[in-house]
Amino acid sequence: MERSLKDTPYERRIQRLMTGEDGDQYGFYINITDNIVREVKNPEKACWEDETGRPGGVTHWLQKQIYPYILDDEEEKKFRRTFLKEELLRIFQTGQRHIQLGYRFRKGKYITCYTVNIEMFEHPVDHTVECCAIWRNDTIPYINRVMTHMLLRDKYRMIAVLDIQENTVFVRKHTFENTEIPCDSPLEYEGFIRELSEKCIQEKSREWFRTSASLNTMEENLQVAGTYSFTVYNADCGAERYTYQWLDKEYREVLIAVEDRTVEMEKDPLTDYLNRDGFVRKTENILKKNADRYQFAIIYFNIRKFSGLNDVYGYENGDRILRSYMDRIQNSMLRPLALGRVAADRFQALVDVKNLEPAALGKLLQYQMQIGEKQVEIYGRCGIYYISKQCKLDVSQMCDLAKIAKNKISNQYVQPYAIYQEDMRTEYEQKNRALLNLEKALEQEEFVVCYQPVVEGKTGQIVSAEALVRWNSSGEGPMIPSVFVPELEDSGYITKLDTYIDQTVRRFQEERYHKGKRMIPVAVNLSRMDLMNSRLMERICTELQETKVPKQYFRYEIIESAYTIISKEGEEFLKRLRKEGVQIFLDDFGTGISTFETVRDYTFDALKMDMGFVKKIGKDPKRDAIVISIIDMAHRMGMKVVAEGIENKQQSEFLCNHGCDYLQGYYYYKPMSAEEFSKLLDK
Q1: 246-299, pLDDT tens digit by residue?
Q2: Which of 25, 506, 531, 648 has its CA 20 to 30 A from that of 452?
Q3: Within the chain, which residues score under 50 in pLDDT?
Q4: Model-level pTM?
Q5: Torsion of CA 564, 569, 571, 574, to 10 degrees
Q6: Strands, E, within 250-309: which ranges?
């Protein structure tokens, strides 16, 4: 039977649905019963026509062109479920004739919001079930709906609309105290920013805030990307993110949203407890508010031979141990008022003295944990610093003293804790094994410099490397940096080791250069003590000037915490290096709220993202969003991004898809000897 019904009401209905009012909308007319695409409306001719006239065409096209690019998993599941032949027929049989789906779509740089309207009907001749599915770009209405929701959500400290042409701002809502900012009244923008700066922003951050929020800076960034954000510190030392995005670009209207990010930025990405900065800030606030009411103590914890547990049971189980250990402390009789992870297996807690019974710590710190089929013994230890009411030390100094007490423990099996005494500091420095053996270890060449290649995200090609160190101790056997580096850093002896590493890398580069072999930049890590040592800094500059190797092949990395306490001399040293053509990377980026002050005060060539964020990729949407934000922020500030600690394909693909420039980790290459590294470069 001939199916054509030209000029009939049925055919005119089909044509009306397929044509619509919007010439840019997409759609297709399908036979649901036979799963065949009958007709396509495709203004851009994007690979639809090939699917017409054959069974399964619509299914094939959806799997290829739609499903991979839907941002939200739940939206994708609903879309897939609805477009099943069986589901559409079931819906039709219930008497329903219209379905509407909405989803967010990202293919390339931009996110688009689509609404799909599905009209179903029965063919008047052969009685097959058919439908028209029409795609409509719903991005602008979606943005308007989001704005309405934003006004109703409590997480925003302020929502405002800026009219650039009129230089006026209308504040829809705000929670700023001690201000006279009216809502829904036109305010002169510069005056508005001035008042916020003086009354709501931390003094040391005011200039940065005024510059970042200026019309010129804001509009320049909006023209580039359509959205612009920065983080600043308020008068209460909290982190707030100011986000600007176009509300109506044609009329130059901008939406301003202020969000409190303190909690998020003060969290340790691995454990979800406080990081170092978060612990310090929370402890300072507690001590300030309760100085005359309670007695407090700071406890410094660590897990014995945690690096060995990582090596034996793997990093994933090592992470489980860390979370288990912190949960155990949090839920113990200590009832910590603040609990944070400061590094690797090192934790700090503020407790009320009435909850602290040192004799009971043994059962808390030593326990068994199931890993696979094995019961693993976990041995913890801690140092205790009792805070006197006359104490003039800051929180970081108190934590250092608790750490010294912890290092005084001679046998954690007998007594896993130690209480700080004034004579411990000198004794600690004198008996530190790493310090005592350093000179001998250097003379006997017990330290081995290894090289871990770094690959380019787009190509997977090796483009640089990081110099790492291992200690093959004659007395203790192989030792990884996490065992000995912290002790060397605390004492200042780390400069001798870093000098050895720097000179070893320099000799390696010079040898390859003089032999005409392939060259790539190699990065050397500088500690906070290095940036306080004038002799070391001068030596590095002198040797750079004397070497014939192009300066582009030398690179230095400094950790965020090192830069936060850098001297003026250290800043000048870094400027000299960059002037010579040496690149400077900021390592461990994202470990605390001081991050933003760091990149504000100094221009780095690249940021190395803290591996705690990398480990969480694909497991926590919030962490994924932070990773994307870090990459975006760095690029906006003219910096590259290096992600380290990559261990699997999922992490690699996520970072590549979101524009991460360079990748480093065991998924690509493990640290290797100089000989192995040379062979790799010579291939």
Answers
A1: 887 777 889 899 988 877 778 888 898 999 888 988 898 899 888 777 799 999
A2: 531
A3: 1-3, 23, 430-431, 592-594
A4: 0.44
A5: -120
A6: 253-260, 296-303
| Structure letter (DSSP) for residue 50 | G
Domain containing residue 618: CATH number: 3.20.20.450
Looking at the fold, whether 18 and 59 belong to one and the same domain comes out as yes
Provide the residue range defining the domain that includes 168.
Answer: 143-260
Q: In terms of domains, do 64 and 162 share one?
A: no
CATH number of the structural domain spanning residue 330: 3.30.70.270
| Neighbouring residues of 266: CB distance < 8 A, sequence distance ≥ 6 | 239, 274, 275, 277, 278, 281, 282, 592, 593
Q: For residue 545, what are the CA distances in angstroms to 476, 540, 551, 585? A: 39, 9, 9, 20
Buried b (16+ CB within 10 A) or exposed e, 182-201: eeeeebebeebbeebbeebb
Assigned domain for 2 exists: no
Which structure tokens are listed for 492? 């200042």
Q: What is the DSSP string of 125-140?
A: TT--EEEEEEEEE-HH
Cα 432 from Cα 411, distance rounded (Å): 15
Structural domain includes residue 4: no
Written as one letter, the residue type at 500 is: Y
What phi and psi, each to the nearest 5 degrees, are found at residue 204?
A: -70, -15
532 phi and psi angles, rounded to 5 deg: -115, -5
Residues 14 and 25 in one domain: yes
CATH assignment at residue 255: 3.30.450
Q: Is the distance from CB of 208 to CB of 214 less than 8 angstroms? A: no
Contact at 8 Å (CB) between 639 and 420?
no
- Domain end residue (candidates: 398, 431, 464): 431
Statement to judge: residues 509 and 646 lie in one domain: yes
56 found inside a domain: yes
The pLDDT, as a whole number, for residue 90 is: 92
Residue at a domain's end among 431, 462, 497:
431
Cα(484)–Cα(434) distance, integer angstroms: 6
- Given a contact cutoff of 8 angstroms between Cβ atoms, the answer to whether 493 and 438 are in contact is yes
Q: What is the CA radius of gyration of the chain?
A: 31
Do 280 and 398 share a domain, yes or no? yes
| pLDDT value at residue 551 | 94
What is the model's pLDDT at position 290? 84
Strands 253-260 and 239-248: antiparallel
Q: Are 174 and 157 in contact (CB under 8 A)?
A: yes
At 1, is the secondary structure helix, strand, or coil? coil
The two structure tokens encoding residue 636: 């906006």
Query: What is the helix (H) or strand (E) element at residue 451, kind and residue range?
Result: strand 447-456
- In angstroms, rounded to a whole number, what is the distance separating the alpha carbons of residues 233 and 206? 9
Same domain, 476 and 419: no
Instruction: Return the CATH number at 39.
Output: 3.30.450.20
On whether both 184 and 117 belong to a single domain, the answer is no
DSSP H or E run through 466 = strand 462-473
Q: Say if residue 238 is in the same domain as residue 332.
A: no
